[in-house]
Amino acid sequence: MAIIDNHKQVKIDKAFSDKHVEMFAFFDSKGIDVEVSDNFKDFQHFLTHLSPDDYPYRYDISFNDDNLDLRDDTYANNAFALYLKKDNKIIATYAAKELGFSYFVNDFIEFTSDEKAEFSKDFSKKMFDEKGTHMYSSCQWVSKDHRGKRFGMILDHLKKNICFDIFNADINYAIHKSQFADYHIKGLHYDESKYLATIPNGDVGGAGEKKDKVYNFTWVTKESWANKLNDVRKLYIR
C-alpha cells in the first residue's frame, strides 16, 4: 500500500499512520493505495465524466473547483479530496472542507430556492456552536465493481480521522438520502441522523438521484468519534 501525498496541508505522517494502524492494514491487505489531494479541478473532472450509470448524481457544487478558488475566506483553504486506488485505477472518492454550519444553511436554502422545499423545524444556523470548526463532507463514490466490500465505509472513517486529527475539527457533518439513516449510524458511526428536508425535484448534489426526495442531516463530534474508535477498529478485522 502506498500513501500518495498531493496536498499542501494534509500530511499523513507516521504518527497518524500509527494511530490508525488497523485501518491502513485493511487497505494494505486489499492492495489499495490512498491519495490525498488539493486538486479539485481533476477531482471534479473525474466524477463528472463517469457514466450516469456509475455516478447518477449531480456534482456537489460545494466542491466545484471554481468555488474553492474564488472564495476569499478561510473555508477555501481547508479542503481535501481522497482517492482509493487499485492497480493505479481510482475505485473510490470522498471530499471534505471547512464550512461553518451557518454558511451551509445559507447555501442549502439558496440551492433549493427555486423549489417548494419543506425544511425540518430543527434545521437552523444555531444547531451548533458557531465558535467551533465545522467540516462538511460529500462526493463519496465507490466503483460498481468494488461496492459491498467496505471500501466506502472505511474511506469515510479515514475522512473523519483527517478532519479531527489533522484539521482539528469539532464537527464533521453531511447530508444523505433518508433511507441510509441506519447505515450512517451503525456503519459510518455518525452520532445522529435527522430529517432535513423534502426536495420535490430530488437530485441534491452528491447525496441522491432525481428519484430521491427526502434527505437527512448527519453529524459526529470530535469527542464522540474518539470514544468510538475502539469499536470502529473492530470493523477492519472482520
Entry keywords:
single chain; 238 residues; alpha+beta; Aminopeptidase; nine-stranded mixed beta sheet; 32% helix; 26% strand
What would you note in describing this structure?
The protein is an alpha+beta fold. The chain has one domain: Aminopeptidase (3-Layer(aba) Sandwich), CATH 3.40.630. The chain contains eight helices and nine strands. It has helices spanning about 15-20, 20-30, 40-50, 65-70, 100-110, 150-165, 180-185, 220-235, and strands at about 5, 30-35, 80-85, 90-100, 120, 135-140, 170-175, 190-200, 215-220. Strands 1-2-3-4-6-7-9-8-5 form a nine-stranded mixed beta sheet, sandwiched between helices. A hairpin with a 2-residue loop joins strand 3 and strand 4. The protein is globular and about 50 Å long.
Q: Approximately how much helix is present in the residues? A: 25-40%
Largest sheet: 9 strands, mixed
Structural class: alpha+beta
Strand fraction: 25-35%
- Written as H for each helix and E for each strand, in order along the chain, the element string is EHHEHHEEHEEHEHEEH
The 3D shape can be described as globular
CATH superfamily: Gcn5-related N-acetyltransferase (GNAT)
**CATH architecture name:** 3-Layer(aba) Sandwich
Task: Identify the strand order in the major beta sheet.
Answer: 1-2-3-4-6-7-9-8-5
- Quickly count the helices: 8
- The end-to-end span amounts to 20 Å
Number of strands: 9
Number of domains: 1
Low-confidence stretches: 70-76
Instruction: Please report the first level of CATH classification, the CATH class.
Output: Alpha Beta
CATH topology label = Aminopeptidase
